[in-house]
# Entry
Amino acid sequence: MHKILKSLFLTAVLSSASVGAHAAPVDLSHAPVDLTQDLIDYSSSELSGSFRLGAGQLAGAGNNFFSDKFLFTLTGIHDFSGLATSLKPSANSGLTLTGFSLSNASGVVLHGALDLLNFTAQDQAWVLNSGKAPLLEGTYFLQVDGYVASATGGSYSGNISASAVPEAQTYAMLLAGLGLMGFVARRRKLQA
# Structure
């Protein structure tokens, strides 16, 4: 009986040690930041995040992660572009960016992609661009995802811009004004 109790106790200790070794990854995310005022004032805004691992925290994808969120509200239709970078000189240094996306209440609107044409792989440059489908009026959430790849930590930085797109009524008024000026010029020419 004594041997059975010893075996059970040893099994419990070993299983709890293995469970502790496979603890869930630590969420290092920062609180959401509202960029609306910067976009209103300057049509652009900077984003950044810095991470340092605490005592006992392990580097790597299975040990920690972050999903930093930046929100903003647009009035009217806007063209949108964004860039997020994190310098990563080697596989086991700095931060590893794993995603860059833009969402609204309906879900993901734009998926970011690594830009290996204009940047190197070490730059980890993620880009977003609304292209021919500008953003409609509403509230949006920009998300930068990744993990700390080395114990020394690292940082990322970026920039977004949102420029207003003239509405169809603006173009119609412009064309009507040009037409009226042409009519007046032609009438004056005929009277002379």
